[in-house]
Amino acid sequence: MPNRRDFLKTSAIASIGASPMLAACGGGASASQQQKPVVVSTWRHGMPANEAAWEELTDDGTALDAVEAGVRVIEADPETRTVGRGGYPDRTGVVTLDACVMDERGRCGSVGALEDILHPTSVARKVMEETPHVMLVGDGARDFAIEQGFEETDLLTEQSRQDWQEWKEKQEETPERPEPNIEGEVDEENHDTIGMLALDANGHLSGACTTSGTQWKMHGRVGDSPLIGAGLFVDDDVGAACATGWGEAVIRTAGSHLAVEKMRQGASPMEACRAVVERVSNLHGNPEDVQVGVLALNKNGEIGAYGLQSGFETAQYTPEAGNQLVEADAFQ
Ligand code: ASP
Q1: Per-domain residue ranges for the chain?
Q2: CA–CA gap between residue 35 and residue 210 (Å, rounded)
Q3: Which residues contact 6 (CB under 8 A, 6 or more apart)?
Q4: In what side-by-side order are the strands of the sheet with 9-16?
Q5: Pocket of ligand 1 (CB under 6 A)
Q6: 91 and 105 in contact (C-beta within 8 Å)?
Q7: Neighbours of 138 (CB within 10 A)
Q8: What pLDDT digit, counting tens, does each position of 197-228 carry?
Q9: Which helix or strand (DSSP H or E) is residue 178 part of?
Q10: N or C: the chain end with fewer CB closer than 10 Å?
Q11: Residue 286 — very low, low, confident or very high, per pLDDT cuts 50/70/90?
Q12: Which of 2.30.40.10, 3.60.20.30, 2.40.128.280, 3.20.20.150 would CATH assign to domain 38-330?
C-alpha cells in the first residue's frame, strides 16, 4: 500500500556547516519569507555537487551558474557510473550522454545521445545561449560542442569497458531485451541521474539534469533527462522540478512539468512530486523493479521529493541546515 506520510524523513547523514546567509525561515516559508539561497539535487552524489553549487550561490553566482558548476563535478567523476565520464555504456559499448539546463527566463538548452564530450550540461548551456534551438543530438551535438571549444574525451573508463564486456558475454548465453531502469537493490554508491535545482540570492530559479542514461540501453536511446518538461522544468514564478529513474515513465507523464503545474495550482513541492509518482503508478501499476523519483523546489525555497520505491535520496543545501542527505517518502 502507498505510504503517504506527509513529510520528508531526514536520514541522519552529513550535515555540513550552515551558512550565515539565512534569509528567512525553513520548510514553512511563506511568500514574504523566502529561504535563499537553496540548492537541491538527486541522490547521494548530490552532496559534493551541492558544495560546488553553494560556492557559486554564496559568491554572487546565479542559480544557472550554480547548477552548472554543481553537476559538472559529477560529470567529471569516473566513480559515478551513471553520469558523464565513467557512466555505463549502451549495448554497443558506447557512452552516450543526455543533459539539459533551464533558467529563470524560461530559456533552455539540451543535448541528447552526445558522445566524446565530458560536460554535456555545459554544451546544453551553449545550445541555449549560442543557438536559436533548444536541443541538439548525436553527431550534430558533438560537432557543435567541438566548434564551441569543447575537447573530445574518451568517456569509457577501463572499468566500464570491463563491465560491458562481461555483460556482453552473458548476452551470448542468455540474451536480455533492453529493460526499464532496473534497480534491484538500491545501490547508494552507484546511482542514477543527477538533477539539480537552485534558488539564488536574488530569488531566481534554474535547474540542470545530466545522465549517461540507463545501463545497456539501445544505441540512440534518449531518456527523460534532456527533455524539457520531463527530466527538468523551471518556471521562475512558481518553482522547479527534476526527475530521476525510469525515463520512459517520466516522459509519458511529462513529470517535471506536471510537478511545476501542480505547484502553480497550490500544491506544496512534496505534494507536487507525489502527484507525479501517482500518475506514473496509475499508468504502469506499481512495478517493483523500477524507480521514479521527483524533486521540487518552489519560489519560497521550500523543498519536496517523492519516490515510487523507497530509497530515493536527495541532497539539500539550505542556509539553516547546511548540506544534508534526505530520504524521500515513497509509495512502496
Ligand atoms: N532517467 C534516466 C534515464 O532514463 C536514468 C536514471 O535516472 O536512472 O535515462
Answers
A1: 38-330
A2: 26
A3: 270
A4: 9-16, 322-327, 313-318, 38-42, 194-199, 205-211, 97-102, 108-114, 135-137
A5: 181, 192-193, 211, 213-214, 223-225, 244-245, 247
A6: no
A7: 15
A8: 999 999 999 999 999 998 899 999 999 999 99
A9: none
A10: N
A11: confident
A12: 3.60.20.30
What's the whole-model pTM score? Answer: 0.90
Q: Do the strands 38-42 and 313-318 form a parallel or antiparallel pair, or are they unpaired?
A: antiparallel
pLDDT in tens, 234-264: 999 999 999 999 999 999 999 999 999 999 9
The x, y and z cell numbers of residue 189, run together, are: 554508491
List active site positions: 193
Q: Amino acid letter at 262?
A: K
Asked if residue 307 lies in contact with residue 281, where contact means CB atoms within 8 angstroms, the answer is no
Q: Quick check: 223 and 215 in contact, CB under 8 A?
A: no
Give the chain's length. 332
Confidence band, pLDDT 50/70/90 cuts, at residue 177: low
- Residue of the CA atom closest to atom 6 of ligand 1: 245
